[in-house]
Amino acid sequence: MNQATINNKIFEIFIRDKEISDIVNQISSQINKSDIKDPLFISILNGSFLFTADIFRKITIPNSEITFVKLSSYNGTETTGKVNTIIGLEHDLSNRNVIILEDIIDTGITLEKVIQILKEKNVAEIKIATLLFKPEAYQKSIPIDFIGKEIPNDFVIGYGLDYNEYGRNLPHIYKLKNKEKC
Ligand code: 5GP
Ligand code: MG
Fold first, then answer.
1. Predicted TM-score (pTM) of this structure
2. What is the strand order of the sheet 40-44 is part of?
3. Counting atoms of ligand 1 from 1, which one is nearest the CA of 157?
4. Of the residues 38, 106, 145, 162, which is catalytic?
5. What is the enclosing helix (H) or strand (E) of 45?
6. 44 CB-contact burial (10 Å; exposed 0-12 / middle 13-18 / buried 19+)
7. How far apart are CA 116 and CA 59, in angstroms?
8. Helix (H) or strand (E) run with residue 17 in it
9. Tens of pLDDT along 118-148?
């Protein structure tokens, strides 16, 4: 299927499943060759679930662990601003070496929040792996250790990534046709 239509928006094929699997092999082998010891992988749900499953089964580092978190924003009772928090992080993270698994890094705002929260939990080392990265949209200076593929500032879906919660089951990655805004 070269096109996918979701909520009347047309998406065209962008990264085929074969290329995704080559990217996954490349990232997992870079992680395996890195010097990180006893890593705890932290997968940021929902978008990263397929990427995480494919990466993690290729990890050969001894004592690798995995956990899954979600970011949630809520309105604090004492402040009017939105506060982002991580739900699902029950591990004792002190002195742990963690590898964040992200589906896509766009502005980097999510990543910065996650890192801030992890640092408060006294982790030892943080590495970041992302399937996709949009350099033109990135606003932060945090270095990203493992990047699958740099992509233009287009909206993409498939392989875990959604448009209004649909499209996560598509085996390929698609991009919005004609650069419409989602
Ligand atoms: P950031 O905080 O870096 O701007 O965005 C990170 C999150 O926004 C990603 O984890 C993802 O959930 C969502 N996101 C950013 N760009 C895209 C995109 O092109 N497609 C989809 N489906 N989600 C995106
Ligand atoms: Mg994400």
1. 0.93
2. 82-87, 65-75, 40-44, 97-105, 125-133, 146-150
3. 22
4. 106
5. none
6. buried
7. 26
8. helix 17-33
9. 999 999 999 999 999 999 999 999 999 999 9
